[in-house]
Amino acid sequence: MKSIYQTITCVNLIDKKPGKLGTIGDTFTKLCTELNLDYVWFDFHAECKKMQWGNLSKLVTIIEPQMKDYGFFEARVGIDRKY
After folding, report:
1. Any idea where the domains of the chain sit in the sequence?
2. Do the Cβ atoms of 30 and 36 come closer than 8 Å?
3. Using the 8-state DSSP alphabet, how is residue 18 labeled?
4. How many CB atoms lie within 10 A of CB 25?
5. Is 66 exposed, middle or buried (0-12, 13-18, 19+ CB in 10 A)?
6. Angle at 68 between CA 33 and CA 41, to 5 degrees
7. Judging by beta carbons within 10 Å of its beta carbon (0-12, 13-18, 19+), is residue 61 exposed, middle or buried?
8. Which helix (H) or strand (E) element contains residue 9?
9. Rg (CA), the chain
């Protein structure tokens, strides 16, 4: 993928707490670092606990420069339809 797209941004939404998920997150961090990928670890559970969905704006702010550089971005939210 990197040879085709050059720049790839990976967003990790896993909890940062120690344990199974933390271990998976740490491993993913290491892999992204080794592959020299743009990487953001956004602890979705911690940031959006108690239905604080507005905190997703923090993630958007973090990745906004990369998204602007790509020149194209698509997101689908709440897809219930079959295609």
Report:
1. 2-70
2. no
3. T
4. 19
5. middle
6. 35
7. exposed
8. strand 9-12
9. 15
pTM: 0.71
Amino acid at 67: M
- Tens of pLDDT, residue by residue over 12-69, are 999 888 889 889 999 999 999 999 999 999 999 888 888 888 888 899 999 988 888 8
Q: What is the pLDDT of residue 42?
A: 94
Q: Which residue has the tokens 């940062």?
A: 16
Where helices occur in 35-75 by DSSP H, the ranges are 44-47, 56-70
Taking a C-beta distance cutoff of 8 angstroms, is the pair 7, 69 a contact? Answer: yes
